[in-house]
Amino acid sequence: MHTIKSFPQWLRVLMRRRGVTQQKLADEIEVARATINKWFNGATPQAGHLNELANYFKVPLDSLLGLFPNKSASFVNKEKFADFPQEVPADEFRSAAGEYGFHTPTGQETLLDTIMNTKQEWTTDKGGFNLNTAYTGKRETKLKKALDTIILKGNSGDMQIELSEVLDAVRKKASEPGQKAALARYCGATPQQVSAWLSGTKEPGGKYTVKLASWVGWLVRK
């Protein structure tokens, strides 16, 4: 048997063994048939699609990752890797994962498995916004710190934008006569705390941010 050295060759062999057409495979992993055809002609799949293919054909993911050489770091979209690592091409995924200390296909498989099987949920408490991650896959992993770093780089910025927009709306309403004191009573906070939030010298915790947004909405509806 000849050694499989390229992804298109691997894909053709596995599809032939399983007896599936391009359209059938596209339907099974929920991509366009044109995407499968591009892979046949040498296009590099996204890391997430590679994971789905490995699951569908029941083959080791690290063997597939190993078909793609690490891409030069200058060509890697670091911002997209931080926000949506499963959506970067497999060769870019390999290179970017290496910067987090995962240099081998096996280590990169574990990282991708963790990313694909981790749920994210924002919660609030008196300390502010917290991102909770829960691993739902079958593999034991020690990668939570690296995963949180990747996720937080993309999501914390979005949350900061939301907080800024809430405070802008609160400042506008609180500038009206008597409203700053009313806001403090509504939130169960001191006038000094409210003044610090509005001046930007201190950020409200998650609980207070929810109340601030609720207060603005209540005034708008009145």
Structure report:
The chain has 222 residues and is mainly alpha-helical. The chain folds into two domains: 7-116, 434 Repressor (Amino-terminal Domain) (Orthogonal Bundle); 121-221, no CATH class. The chain is 62% helix and 7% strand. The chain is built from twelve helices and two strands. It has helices at 7-18, 22-29, 33-40, 47-57, 61-65, 78-83, 90-99, 105-116, 144-174, 179-187, 191-199, 206-221; strands spanning 118-125, 128-135. A two-stranded antiparallel sheet has the order 1-2. Helix 9 (144-174) packs parallel to helix 12 (206-221) and helix 10 crosses helix 11 (191-199). It is elongated, with a radius of gyration of 24 Å.
- Secondary structure tally, helices: 12
CATH topology of the largest domain: 434 Repressor (Amino-terminal Domain)
Please give the share of residues in helix: 55-70%
Largest sheet: 2 strands, antiparallel
Instruction: State the order of secondary-structure elements, H for helix, E for strand.
Output: HHHHHHHHEEHHHH
Instruction: Outline the low-pLDDT stretches.
Output: 146-159
What is the name of the CATH architecture of the largest domain?
A: Orthogonal Bundle
Bulk shape? elongated
Strand order of the largest sheet: 1-2
**What does the radius of gyration come to?**
24 Å
Class derived from helix and strand content: mainly alpha
Number of DSSP strand runs: 2
CATH C-level name of the largest domain: Mainly Alpha
The tally of structural domains comes to 2
How many angstroms does the end-to-end distance come to? 76 Å
